[in-house]
Amino acid sequence: MSVRTNRPRRRLLTSMAAVFAAGAFVVGCTSNEPEEEEAPAAETGGGDDAGAGSGNDEPGETVVIGFSGPEADHGWLAAVNDSAIAEAESYEDVELRTAEGTNDANLQISQIETFINEGVDAIVLLPTDGAQLTEVAIRAMEAGIPVVNVDREFSSPFAARATILGDNHGMGISAGTYACQLIEDNDIQDPVIAEIAGIDALPLTQDRSAGFAEALEACGQTVDNRVAAEFTVESGEEQAANLLQAAPQIDIIWNHDDDQGVGVKQAFDNAGRDEFFFIGGAGSSNAMQWIQDGEMEATILYPPTQAADGIRLARLIAQNKGMSDLVQVEVPRRIVLNAPVVNADNVEDYLHLGFDS
C-alpha cells in the first residue's frame, strides 16, 4: 500500500523559509567568527564591472581548480560530486582537477597538500570533517590559493575565502512551518506529529530537529514520536517500522533524509499505513516522483548543487570577478542556500535537482 495525500491542501508559497532567514543560524559557526553578510547564490556571476548584465559567463583567463569531496556513498553526496564536475565542464576556461572521493580525513588532507604543491588557482573542498581539514585549508590560503568551503564548515574563519552552505536549521523551519499549515488547512485536532531524524550525533541532524521544533512551537505543537536512523535505506526501514509500532495513529511524519526515505516508505507500505501526511528531506528523484504520484506530501530541498555553486564561486574569485546581481564588487564570504518546500504545486520546477538514491 502506498502513502497517499488524500486530504485537501491549500497552495503554499515555496519560499516560506525566507520568512525565518533573518533568524536562521548556520551549522558549525564559531563564536569568534566575524559576522558576514549572507547573499543568495546567483544563477550567473558578475564581471569586473559589478553590475547586473555583466558577462561573467564569457570565457576569461583559464583557471585550475582542485576539487575534493567525500566518498559518494550516499545519493546526495554522489549528486554533489557529479554537479561539481558538470559545472566545471560547462566552462572552457576552467581546468578541474578532481581528487578521489574519500571518507578518510588524512587522505583528504594529503589531497589538498597535493593541490597546494601543484599551485592550483583555487580549491573547492567539501571536507569529510570540517575541523580536521581546517589546518590544511589555512595552509592553502596562506599559499595564496583561495579555498571555497562547501557544506561542512571549517573551524576557523581564516581557512576559506568563501563558504557556501545548505540550511539545515532552515530545513527544519520549512518542514515545521509546512506541518503547521497542513494542520490549519485540514482542521486537524490534537495532531500526532512524528519525526524520523538522521544520525543524532551530527550537528546537521541536531539543527534540523531544532528548526522543526521551533516552527512547531510557533503553532502550539510538539513532536509526539521521534526516532533516529543513519541516512541509509536499511536504517530508515527499521526505524520507521519501530515508529509505526509505537504510534497506532499519526497525522504528520517528517523524515529528514530522502535517501533513508526509500526504506521509510517501504516500512509504510509493509505496514499498510497511509493515514498521515508524509514530508521528506533533501529532494531525491524518488521523493519528487512520489509527490507527483500522490504518495508523498512534500520534501524540503537541501540543494545538491552546493559544490557546483562552489565551482562557480572559485572561478569568479580566481578571475578577480564579482557577482552580477550584487552591488558589492567581490564574491561574498558566506552564502547560505534556501530550503524551500517542494510539493505538488511546484515539483516540476525542481525535478532537474532531483538525485538518485
TrEMBL record:
SUPFAM superfamilies hit by this protein: Periplasmic binding protein-like I
Q: Which keywords has UniProt assigned to this entry?
A: Signal
Question: Could you name the domain of life of the organism this protein comes from?
Answer: Bacteria
Pfam families cross-referenced by the UniProt entry: Peripla_BP_4
Q: Which family does it belong to?
A: Belongs to the bacterial solute-binding protein 2 family.
This protein is called: Ribose transport system substrate-binding protein
Compositional bias segments (type: Gly residues): 44-54
UniProt subcellular location: Cell envelope
Species assigned in the record? Jiangella mangrovi
Which parts pass through the membrane? Answer: none
List the residue ranges of the region (Disordered). Answer: 31-67
Q: Which GO terms describe its molecular function?
A: carbohydrate binding
Q: Signal sequence span per UniProt?
A: 1-24
Task: Give the CC-aspect GO terms.
Answer: cell envelope
Q: Where is the Periplasmic binding protein domain?
A: 65-321
Q: Does the keyword Ribonucleoprotein apply?
A: no
